[in-house]
Amino acid sequence: MDFLADFLTRFVDKLQSPTLGFLIGGMVIAALNSRLAIPDAVYKFIVFMLLLKVGLSGGIAIRNANLAEMLLPAVFAAVIGILVVFIARNTLARLPGVKPLDAIATGGLFGAVSGSTLAAGITMLESEGMQYEAWAGALYPFMDIPALVTAIVLASIYAGKQKRDKYLKNEDYLRKGEYSGMQPVAAGGYSSEPGGIAGGSASQSGGPANNRVKIWPIVKDSLQGSALSALILGLALGIFTRPESVYESFYNPLFRGLLSILMLVMGMEAWARIGELRKVAQWYAVYAFVAPLLHGLIGFGLGYIAHIATGFSPGGGVILAVIAASSSDISGPPTLRGGIPKANPSAYIGASTAVGTPVALAVGIPLYIGLAQALMGGG
Amino acid sequence: MDFLADFLTRFVDKLQSPTLGFLIGGMVIAALNSRLAIPDAVYKFIVFMLLLKVGLSGGIAIRNANLAEMLLPAVFAAVIGILVVFIARNTLARLPGVKPLDAIATGGLFGAVSGSTLAAGITMLESEGMQYEAWAGALYPFMDIPALVTAIVLASIYAGKQKRDKYLKNEDYLRKGEYSGMQPVAAGGYSSEPGGIAGGSASQSGGPANNRVKIWPIVKDSLQGSALSALILGLALGIFTRPESVYESFYNPLFRGLLSILMLVMGMEAWARIGELRKVAQWYAVYAFVAPLLHGLIGFGLGYIAHIATGFSPGGGVILAVIAASSSDISGPPTLRGGIPKANPSAYIGASTAVGTPVALAVGIPLYIGLAQALMGGG
Amino acid sequence: MDFLADFLTRFVDKLQSPTLGFLIGGMVIAALNSRLAIPDAVYKFIVFMLLLKVGLSGGIAIRNANLAEMLLPAVFAAVIGILVVFIARNTLARLPGVKPLDAIATGGLFGAVSGSTLAAGITMLESEGMQYEAWAGALYPFMDIPALVTAIVLASIYAGKQKRDKYLKNEDYLRKGEYSGMQPVAAGGYSSEPGGIAGGSASQSGGPANNRVKIWPIVKDSLQGSALSALILGLALGIFTRPESVYESFYNPLFRGLLSILMLVMGMEAWARIGELRKVAQWYAVYAFVAPLLHGLIGFGLGYIAHIATGFSPGGGVILAVIAASSSDISGPPTLRGGIPKANPSAYIGASTAVGTPVALAVGIPLYIGLAQALMGGG
């Protein structure tokens, strides 16, 4: 009962956070038929700003990290980020009625990392007196960015396959500009890469005669899209230049505010598309409850391997588990909105903020700390 | 003579404030035929940001206020806000040559509250050693927002009536999209709600056969417009969620700067339309001199009733009078620009900043403090 | 060898600065065929914000300066700013293969002032213990703004002449809207003033019958363009109003961040146009090496005249030389991008940041300090 009360307290707190508050505000505004709208040019620029900031902060963290020492945990973090998306692709996406693009985006969000869940985990580690490597917090971009890139690429591959299947069934169908994918095109989407681009790539890679989708053109096309371009540009600028001054004075302080506006826009769209989820909401609830615990245990297992192999600390193992269990409410939404515009934000944001994050906080963190103390003798 | 010198000093100070400086800068730029322009998408976004901030700050103030204790003064504040607009509607708007939409917008601005006049009033109260309730400053959104909403609704009702009258005179006239109201459509307007929308509502409410304008569809339509939607969304987010972090780090610090850009745009437009005012400027001058004193006395009277009924302090009564006397140079312009785009900003901003605010500061505040000390024994 | 090592260190440091980092990032993004783009409305607004800030900071510096005392050095600063552009117009612009608009823009950038070079100069003066007037730093807008205005006006005159020459050769050519100048129109340019406007002015000034270009209509047209309008508006607001609060809270803090985005856009464009420079890069390298030293010596000479005529301090003379030697990486790029959109940013930014600024820092500053100590006995 204590757990339930804790869970509900965190849930209500979340509802009042600016992030979720603006999302719900956007839904209410849309439900009341308001004519409020964010101009498309401004919206696209906001997404660009958010993604550049996510990339910059990851790049700066990597530049300042001791790469040699953190090599194995960093590789494990990247493996987890990629694996989480493939798990969603092969579980949630195959459930009856669940749209694969929605499921892939949800997997991307659960693979990405929540800074606030990470902070909660570190706080609890310290109150338990467990030691951890100072650079353990810098593992997050190694998981965050691979997860988001994997999700966008898998979505492009899926959309490309869909298009080719349609093409084979009806050759007349594929008239230029008419095709709009399985899902309705997201209104005001930052870009229509997955559908439009993967189509182009599929035809480059041989068209209807060749029955296999070539992967590399789709990956390349995803990376050239505006969402991943901005993310990777920020990452590269963070690693190779010294953007700290402009990051601290501009990109970082504007981030939360611009995110609140993005949340408003996503709330308006979520309302318009919430009906799509009515019949499959239970699958998202189950996934969002089980996934953080499963991902966290994978993270804990790999942390344990690193503990044995290289003496990675028990506290570091807990941090790896916590970032694996967390789902992003910051870097994820803008990236997925830009990179998989056809995925329904009601699905992935709803699953993450309403269930996934409270479970990771209230169940996950205490579980991993207890396991570490039992198995690795931390504390 | 002292009063005149004081008045002139404040007037010249005002001219150098960023708000008025940018307004005049915009007028000069327009007069010199510059091709400088703020892109429409950015302009709309700036108005959205300003209105959301006005709503948020009002909502946060209301959430933190002791509603039970301040109930009567808050109701009085709302009554004053609404009343001020009706006074303008039935005096200024009926003077010869004055355009009713300009007069209604002016009434809205004089009903709305100026934070700097309020601050000046509180400073003077404290230097007089008068006591006042700590929450008295939080009365401002209860007057500010009703005044602005009333002005926009009255403008919509007026525009709806105008359109129906025209329609009855000339049924062929009302071709789709052609009608543009009595006043020229404001260039680059945030939205054309009053005209366009009220028309739609008027025809919903029975069209030419029914000779009465139905009020509710117009009110609903005004509330769904982008201006009031943003204002009320901000208010609701301020009351029901905890947006303080994003308010303090984003909406509040950007406010003055974005307002300066809006002022520039309004200055450019004001120059283009200043000729409209040449024949009626004296009416605005008279209104702007008398109105702050009249509104302040109404506020003082209601504060006196609250003093007798519930023990509202004399200092609180002065604050109610000061916010009634003040006219908004912050929340008002963007809201009216968004909600009544056909009203001429030269009229309402000119009346408020050039005459109304100096009168409220130099005449109003000392008058109400003197009255309070004489009648209620404050100090 | 010490000098070369110093030069190279500064060069590598520059490459990691946010300004140049984002420029190179934009080039890389463009080279990789990314579809990342900044919406045009946002881009235009960013240029407006940057130019208004440059004008505001100049205007505030002038308002706070002791104009009577600094009259002669200020006049000298303006003379240098204008002269530098005319030097480029009559040297670099006449070299084989160099496009005159690129050369004029480069001259404008070398005439404008770099705040960081100025700061480096002041720091070195202080470490040498040389005295200088407290207002000497405020000389920069007197050189900066005349140089940029001169460059834009000379570009307009050149474009107007080009157009008239074409017109005389082929009267049919000049169909409305078709003419696009010698250079390809800059993609996403803030405005196409020089070409379009100078044409209009040229025909006002007599058309083909009159074989001389009238200067005043072109100057007036340049000043009415969006770039110089924003710059001069900011200057006037800085001088005549008190925009410090909004400058400190809005325009100044946003400047570096918005500049980084402009640099990204200019990098993307620079990549697309870098091929134009292949055959003339050596001329830019020679100009960028010689020009800072020549300009600095002119500044030093005029400072020496002021020293003899009015007792201007030796340190002040060094500061005049340093701002003459410096080339702008802050105020220049947005102004030139807005005012001479057809000029190739690879030319002027490349020349300034890759060669000009390191030369001014590593060669210029020590040279002028040594000269001052030898000739004027400073220190």
Automatic annotation (TrEMBL), chains A, B, C:
TM annotation in the entry: 20-38, 45-65, 71-92, 104-125, 137-159, 222-241, 253-272, 284-302, 347-369
PANTHER family named among the record's database cross-references: SLR1512 PROTEIN
Keyword annotations from UniProtKB, A to Z: Membrane, Transmembrane, Transmembrane helix
Name of the protein: Transporter protein
Source organism superkingdom: Bacteria
UniProt-listed InterPro entries: Sbt_1 (IPR010293)
Organism per entry: Halomicronema hongdechloris C2206
